[in-house]
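User: Can you predict the 3D structure for this chain?
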Amino acid sequence: MKHIIRFLRLIKAGLVVLCILIISSAVFPGVFSWSTEEGKAQIQDFVDNVKNSADKIIADISEKTGWFQNSEKESSASSDITGRADYKAPEEMGKEISKPVESSQNSNGSEGIEAANKMENSQNIEIAKNGEDIKISVDYNVTDESLVFDTLYYPYFGILTADEQILYKQLYENMLKFNTDIDLKTTTSAAALAKVFEAVYNDHPEMFWLDTSYQYGYYSSGEVAKVILSFNETAEYIERAKAQFDEAAEKIIQGAQAFDNAFDKERYVHDALNELAEYNENAPLNQSAYSALVGGSSVCAGYSKAFQYLMQQVGIPCYYCVGYANGEHAWNIVYIDGVYYNVDVSWNDGAANPYEYFNMPEEEFRLTHSISGLSKNVFGG
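Assistant: Here is the predicted structure, written as structure tokens:
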């Protein structure tokens, strides 16, 4: 209440001074004249002082009482290219997918994996202003709508909705082009974005430069409109890294192509990869196929990504699967002659029986391994 009294007193004082100025301009026209530049400046200074004082008091009252909240005062939030003032830029409000700490290796060789499938609960929210839909118009990063992903080789793409598949294609294209700042074609929820990101990550082991973390910009309503991707250190020397990757992979691919039978090709790739790589929890870039093929050391994720890529190159559908096996773990599922088989390359590496988890039947494999995350949506529980 005391703020209101101060405000009214200020208005009263302002009116009194204004009256004095008007009278003075009539009595002393040479000194106080509305028409002179000096007089105008005096009046403008007075008006500015009154306005500033009033704004300060109103802000003070609004903070303490909640009044004047519906004023047309400009929002302090940044504005994106759609013109929406409630947009929270990634550098201000961006959220990042966390990287869980790896658990220690146990006797079976399992370890934690970076979870690209960390998702947040969200809700579908309509974009509306003054009762009318806002159509977002942005200059998107180029996306090739003609891209076709055969679900026989890219099963994670196959479980997405039509809108999510469009986002999948947009992320895929920009990941290939090393674009970090992406304006989404349509807004989406954080959960849907995480689902799509994981789908791309799981389907495409060839993009070894992709980090499993990202940031996103969103509106106050929760709608995600922008994504900022992260790439690992190989992006800094990508041409050389690609050459190294291709050279290492080609040696194994050529060796496998010498066999006519799909099972023989698979076994050759399995053996060659385990001969090339060794298990090392501290291996650099160990969530990528690059670590196993070029670095020669990795963890379960790197083994599985490398095996997936090599099998794809020899024409055998092979999938990246995550779940639990004495801790968070990753392995592969292959599809040969109409049958799915489970392969855990990293557990076989260095084991007394190097084929114990090679093409193991489902019912036996599930005694030690359980599927989780998006992989469960693809392959079932």
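The CA atoms of residues 108 and 347 lie 6 Å apart. Confidence is low (pLDDT under 50) at residues 65-140.
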